[in-house]
Design goal:
Strand order of the largest sheet of chain A: 2-3-4-1-5
Shape of chain A: elongated
CATH topology of the largest domain in chain A: Rossmann fold
Number of domains of chain A: 2
Structural class of chain B: mainly alpha
CATH architecture of the largest domain in chain A: 3-Layer(aba) Sandwich
Largest interface: A-B, 41 and 51 residues
Strand content of chain B: under 5%
Shape of chain B: elongated
Distance between the termini of chain A: 29 Å
Number of helices of chain A: 11
Radius of gyration of chain A: 21 Å
Helix content of chain A: 40-55%
Oligomer: heterodimer
CATH class of the domain at 13-105 in chain B: Mainly Alpha
Helix content of chain B: over 70%
Largest sheet of chain B: 2 strands, antiparallel
CATH topology of the domain at 13-105 in chain B: Arc Repressor Mutant, subunit A
CATH class of the largest domain in chain A: Alpha Beta
Number of helices of chain B: 25
CATH architecture of the domain at 13-105 in chain B: Orthogonal Bundle
Distance between the termini of chain B: 108 Å
Strand content of chain A: 5-15%
Structural class of chain A: alpha/beta
């Protein structure tokens, strides 16, 4: 995972930290923001701070053709078959052979299985497999994180599946935590049921210079114009706090002598 | 004389900018300018593909990067990981800016990068959808006309089976849309983009969006491109018919028909005649429908699918004319052929019409069984129009059986909701007729009259005067 420097975003990071509390009342976390607002960096930073024993499944919807089968196969890859007994048993009963370490192979197998046969059969398989997957995640001995980035690029099928998970998650699994980031995110307006279990953060950027000074220092760089804070404040103002643009200039700063 | 501080200068320039985009470009240019020349060239090239790894990027460059240079490139704030092993991409916002500037300032170089990218991608595994999409993405710039054909062929491949997921085709269209949004596609190729976009919309049942995409193709300007014109007219005919816009659908099929005739393309001609026959049937222009279907039968050259479609169409013609024996005979002929060629949609349509024949003969149990068969098949092939029709027919059977009006009402409500969802207004009007019959059967004449009137109004709205008149006739008979 690329190491990111992150300025501020204390509140969303605190919300992420709360996901791992004993009695987590908001297992769904949504980050929404424009391009360059730092969603991906924030998500990466959050994932790095997740508890070491948490099983992490990450999906970037930029990937071509990414779908539910991919999420299932990544879960097998990260958690291992033994920790997903209901899911593995169900696949085994239907002659789908999966292995712990075969990430792409598993994805293909599950994909073929989920997408063959009639519409009814496909729907039924997806529901049953999702049920088994949720049941297993509920029984995990440590929490599991499903992190989804670039949600706005998700294909219809994946979006529908993710929305079905979101609606059911608060009741179906005590261990699963879901974080979704994107320029668009699932709308909390449509369903009151899960809105209470969800924490939504809109990322407006980091316009305060004092949050950027530690970033400059942590990169071993120095602000080339005096006074440093004033220069950074002017830079932040010019870019309206957009982290991608601010860091672009910071990274060109001279090294500390 | 004191030296000017470039950072102070940058700030002043940023503050003088009039737009955010100007500021974005200024900072990106400043950042890139700090890099060695080889890396500056690499950043420009890296913005062209959707993703890159070292080998892919080096294939685009005159001077390939060594490991250290590549590592330095990855350190830049606008480079981020892309899904997949060792793959990266230029951040969306910076990539857009870089592409825009390169296209404006040195289009030839952009095309050169695309050409090299196309050559590299073509040599990768084309069964891997990411490489397949990337290949087409670059081919559309490197050799636009061939790229347009590749786009169409791949899109047809990825949408032709309803049982396959649509996410691959959606990813392909999403990628190509980048070119379209940035005006990089020549006009003709842009039309191919809209055609394929509509293909994917139709596959995902987004018929309204499909119609909008097709509307972006100015048919009067693309006359010379036979494939594009007839494909567009064919889809438009299909979409208009799905929205019960029969005059528009008829016009599209007529136009396509004349082009197929001029090109002596019997297959296309037959397809249009069949499409028109369906419209005539919906409009109760039974003689016109029959004439078209008989023409198709005469010239189908042994094509089993077309033959079966014609038989089924004739079955419907005779059903409307209440010649149930002939209707039965044609439907059975069609069913045999559909079974032979393994067409599930064809079989479902036959079961549906046979169920209607049984209903007319008052053999209600048989009607119910056939309708169940149709419903089950429609559902298997994801045909929502067929499912809605079956639900409506179930309602009609229950009304005729007079044993469970509550169930009949439930079927009509389900059918009507589904018809509305897919915007099939003819189906909605048929459900209004169903509600009228339901109330009439229960002796609720006031409500029945209201529904007959509503149905007539709906048919008028859809420019289906014969069917509107039929509803008004029912209303008159009821009042007598």
């Amino acid at each position: 995972m690329k190491a990111d420097v992150l300025a501020n975003y204390q509140k969303p990071r605190a919300a992420f930290a709360r996901l791992w509390q004993d009695k987590c009342s908001e297992p769904i976390l949504l980050f929404c923001g424009q391009s360059g607002s730092g969603k991906t960096s924030l998500l990466r930073n959050c994932r790095r701070t997740a508890p070491a024993d948490a099983c992490q499944v990450f999906v970037d919807c930029k990937q071509d053709g990414v779908n539910a089968a991919e999420v299932f196969s990544r879960t097998v890859h990260h958690a291992g078959r033994d920790r997903l007994p209901a899911f593995s048993r169900w696949l085994q009963q239907h002659n789908v052979e999966i292995r712990d370490n075969q990430f792409e192979g598993n994805s293909n197998q599950i994909n073929v299985f989920l997408n063959s046969g009639s519409k009814e059969e496909r729907e039924e398989r997806r529901i049953v497999l999702t049920d088994a997957w949720l049941q297993d995640t509920d029984q995990l001995d440590s929490p599991m994180l499903l992190a989804v980035d670039t949600y706005e690029k998700a294909a219809d099928d994946l979006r529908t599946w993710l929305n079905s998970i979101i609606v059911r998650l608060p009741r179906a699994s005590r261990q699963l935590r879901l974080v979704v980031a994107g320029q668009k995110i699932p709308s909390t307006d449509t369903c009151e049921d899960w809105a209470d279990s969800c924490c939504e953060h809109t990322l407006f950027g980091v316009p305060e210079a004092e949050h950027w000074l530690p970033v400059v220092e942590s990169l071993g760089l120095r602000v080339p114009v005096d006074p440093p804070l004033t220069y950074l404040a002017a830079l932040c103002h010019a870019f309206q706090g957009n982290p991608a643009k601010i860091i672009e200039i910071i990274k060109t700063f001279p090294r500390q002598s | 004389m004191s030296e000017t501080n470039p950072y102070q200068e940058l700030l002043e320039q940023l503050q003088a900018c009039e737009s955010q985009e100007e500021r974005d470009w200024l900072s990106l240019r400043f950042s890139i300018a700090q890099l060695p020349k080889e890396l500056q060239a690499a950043v420009r090239a890296a913005a062209v593909p959707r993703f890159f790894d070292r080998a892919f990027l080096n294939a685009l460059l005159d001077h390939p990067l060594d490991e250290g240079q590549f590592a330095e490139l990855l350190e830049q704030s606008y480079i981020e990981p892309y899904p997949g092993k060792e793959r990266y991409n230029v951040h969306e916002r910076s990539r857009r800016l870089l592409q825009e500037k390169l296209w404006q300032e040195d289009e030839l170089l952009y095309r050169e990068f695309s050409g090299r990218a196309f050559a590299y991608c073509r040599s990768q595994d084309q069964k891997d959808i990411t490489w397949r999409i990337e290949t087409i993405y670059h081919q559309l710039i490197a050799e636009p006309n061939k790229g347009a054909i590749a786009l169409s062929n791949t899109c047809i491949d990825w949408t032709k089976y309803p049982s396959l997921p649509s996410d691959q085709a959606e990813s392909l269209i999403r990628a190509v849309r980048e070119h379209q949004d940035m005006n990089r596609l020549p006009e003709k190729v842009a039309h191919y983009f809209w055609l394929n976009q509509s293909r994917v919309h139709i596959r995902c049942f987004r018929h309204e969006e499909a119609k909008q995409s097709l509307g972006k193709i100015p048919l009067s300007h693309v006359k010379k491109d036979f494939y594009l014109t007839v494909s567009c007219l064919e889809y438009l005919g299909r979409v208009h018919a799905l929205f019960s816009e029969f005059p528009e659908a008829e016009l599209c099929y007529e136009k396509a028909l004349s082009r197929f005739r001029m090109a002596d393309n019997w297959l296309g001609e037959n397809f249009c005649l069949l499409g028109l026959a369906q419209i005539y049937l919906a409009l109760f222009k039974v003689n016109l429908a029959r004439r078209n279907l008989e023409k198709v039968l005469m010239r189908c050259r042994g094509d089993q699918q077309i033959k079966a479609d014609s038989f089924l169409g004739l079955g419907k013609v005779y059903l409307v004319r209440s010649n149930l024996n002939k209707a039965w005979s044609f439907c059975n002929k069609a069913l045999k052929l559909y079974k032979k060629i393994g067409s599930r949609l064809g079989k479902a349509n036959c079961y549906y019409v046979i169920s209607e024949i049984y209903l007319r003969r008052s053999e209600l149990l048989k009607a119910q069984k056939q309708c169940g068969e149709a419903m089950s098949l429609y559902s298997k092939i994801d045909n929502r129009g067929g499912e809605a029709n079956s639900l409506r027919l179930f309602g009609e059977i229950e009304v005729k059986a007079k044993n469970n009006f509550f169930l009949a009402q439930k079927y009509y409500i389900q059918a009507s909701t589904l018809f509305e969802r897919i915007q099939c207004w003819e189906g909605v009007a048929e459900c209004l007729e169903g509600f009228a019959e339901l109330h009439q059967a229960q002796g609720q004449l006031q409500q029945a009259a209201e529904y007959w009137q509503k149905a007539a109004d709906k048919y008028h709205e859809l420019v289906m005067p014969l069917r509107a008149e039929q509803c008004l006739e029912q209303l008159r008979q009821m009042k007598e």
